[in-house]
Amino acid sequence: MWDSWFGGFTEPSDYANAVMPDVNVRAIIISSIFVIPYLAFLIILPGVREKRLVTLAIFTITALVGAVLAASLYLPGWTGGSAKIVSQLRSHVNERMRARVGVSVGLTTINITLRYEQMVKEDSLSRIDMSQLYYNEKFDISGGITDEFLAVRLRLA
């Protein structure tokens, strides 16, 4: 066990494979920032003597607007769509593939995805395995928005 000064417990480590969670952790954190204080408010609400309904309405609207703004700024997918296409992947080859193109647009990012589904017309000389084809590109568009806000602010100042 102790072959040298630093020889203790040198057998290979057996770590579990890292697996992505099935839930959106960022969405849970953002929603808990607004849900926990709202639940605390609902517990305190019976102690309010006057204007309970007005207080409930104002706090509910404020929390809802804050949650929607935070979610729209920090969560990636604001709106999106997808379509099936038949396309040529490489030039000068007679292969055609059926794929799905997806676009997800957020306030600060655009995400474009291409996922292979099947070959429509195969080339017998092709040596590329298309079954693992998956492109996913994320483009940051927040720089343009920041520049526009800066221009408006300088114009108003």
UniProtKB/TrEMBL annotation:
It is a multi-pass membrane protein. It is found in: Membrane. One of its GO terms (biological process) is protein transport. One of its GO terms (cellular component) is endoplasmic reticulum membrane. InterPro entries: Dual_oxidase_maturation_fac. It holds the Pfam family DuoxA. Keywords: Glycoprotein, Membrane, Transmembrane, Transmembrane helix. The chain crosses the membrane at residues 27-46, 53-77. PANTHER family: DOXA1 FACTOR-RELATED (PTHR31158:SF1), DUAL OXIDASE 2 (PTHR31158). Belongs to the DUOXA family. This is Uncharacterized protein. It comes from Ancylostoma duodenale. The lineage of its organism: Eukaryota, Metazoa, Ecdysozoa, Nematoda, Chromadorea.
